[in-house]
């Protein structure tokens, strides 16, 4: 297959901009954005809403390099099946625009840069966690699970849950229960998110022999699993409020609202498991859900939010006290 990739569809860059674009595409930037949002959420929670701007920039840049490294290695490893699937055939490696060995050098450089920045500007724990994220994604998910186990996404989802740990460790130098809860939330969110996509492109996975759950078990069992994981995930998102008390009422309201919509969409898929439009709707919403959930964590952690909530609570308490006094005077009169 590699010979086919090298000879049948090789393309050449015409200028430096195209070279940059090809290497940029290797990093899968659309995936990285969501990872950075979860990293930022971990940092804001750990810093109680007051993050050092320089540390934030360095950590997000390092996270970008680490994720880009992992995604580039994934592109190298999956170049054979990427060539078969029309959706991915024109990625840089299967199209011949970037040679695998050059992509590997690029991935190593990104990983070294990420580790160095986190070690110097944050701490060794954050740097090690970033490297563990790369290793888990490349070795456990891409190499071991993706083509060999129907549970590939369930276990492999842990790779995408490392960023908030990196963010938390960058701020505090350690990992609390709240940090591990963030890890667990993303771990539980990954199967519904990715299985919805897998239902949409089931035939492509079947064509290249990747044993995604819809390919092996069918759409209906997959929809049931999505429903179960969704119901399990929602209560864990609220544990940041109680018993951990890391987030407050603003986050709780946001999490409940977003969770209710997630449950509704998962239920709709459960009723129509073969409807790709419903699966697409759930997939797209799952991305928005995680982005808004993390945004809710950030907003709730801000000192200004605490001041507003406290002031509102004081006014509400005062108003209720006045109301009770008025009612009491009426009855006494």
TrEMBL record:
Top EC class of this enzyme: transferase
Membrane topology, as annotated: Multi-pass membrane protein
Fetch the Gene3D superfamilies from UniProt: UbiA prenyltransferase
CDD domains in UniProt: PT_UbiA_Cox10
Question: What does the record give as its pathway?
Answer: Porphyrin-containing compound metabolism; heme O biosynthesis; heme O from protoheme: step 1/1
What compartments host this protein?
Cell membrane
Keywords of this protein's UniProt record, alphabetized? Cell membrane, Heme biosynthesis, Membrane, Transferase, Transmembrane, Transmembrane helix
EC no.?
Answer: 2.5.1.141
Q: Which family does it belong to?
A: Belongs to the UbiA prenyltransferase family. Protoheme IX farnesyltransferase subfamily.
The molecule here is called Protoheme IX farnesyltransferase
Starting at the broadest rank, the lineage of the source organism is: Bacteria, Bacillati, Cyanobacteriota, Cyanophyceae, Oscillatoriophycideae
């Amino acid at each position: 297959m590699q010979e086919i990739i090298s000879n049948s569809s090789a393309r050449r860059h015409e200028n430096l901009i195209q070279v940059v674009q090809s290497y940029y595409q290797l990093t899968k930037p659309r995936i990285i954005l969501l990872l950075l949002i979860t990293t930022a959420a971990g940092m804001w929670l750990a810093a109680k809403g007051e993050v050092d701007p320089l540390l934030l920039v360095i950590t997000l840049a390092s996270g970008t390099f680490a994720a880009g490294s992992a995604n580039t290695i994934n592109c190298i490893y999956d170049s054979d099946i990427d060539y078969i699937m029309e959706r991915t055939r024109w990625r840089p490696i299967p199209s011949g625009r970037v040679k695998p060995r050059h992509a590997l050098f690029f991935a190593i450089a990104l990983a070294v840069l990420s580790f160095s920045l986190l070690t110097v500007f944050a701490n060794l724990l954050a740097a090690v966690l970033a490297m563990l994220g790369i290793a888990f994604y490349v070795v456990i998910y891409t190499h071991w699970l993706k083509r060999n186990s129907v549970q590939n996404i369930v276990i492999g989802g842990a790779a995408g849950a490392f960023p908030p740990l990196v963010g938390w460790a960058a701020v505090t130098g350690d990992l609390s229960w709240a940090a591990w809860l963030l890890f667990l939330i993303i771990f539980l969110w990954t199967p519904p998110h990715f299985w919805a996509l897998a239902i949409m492109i089931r035939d492509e996975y079947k064509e290249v022999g990747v044993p995604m759950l819809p390919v092996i078990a069918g759409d209906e069992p997959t929809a049931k699993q999505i429903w179960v994981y969704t119901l399990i995930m929602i209560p864990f998102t609220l544990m940041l409020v109680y018993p951990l008390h890391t987030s407050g009422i603003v986050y709780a309201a946001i999490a409940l609202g977003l969770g209710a919509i997630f449950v509704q969409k998962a239920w709709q898929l459960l009723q129509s498991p073969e409807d790709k439009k419903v699966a697409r709707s759930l997939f797209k919403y799952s991305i928005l859900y995680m982005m808004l959930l993390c945004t809710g964590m950030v907003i709730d952690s801000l000192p200004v939010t605490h001041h507003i909530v406290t002031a509102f609570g004081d006014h509400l308490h005062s108003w209720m006290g006045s109301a009770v006094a008025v009612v009491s005077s009426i009855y006494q009169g």
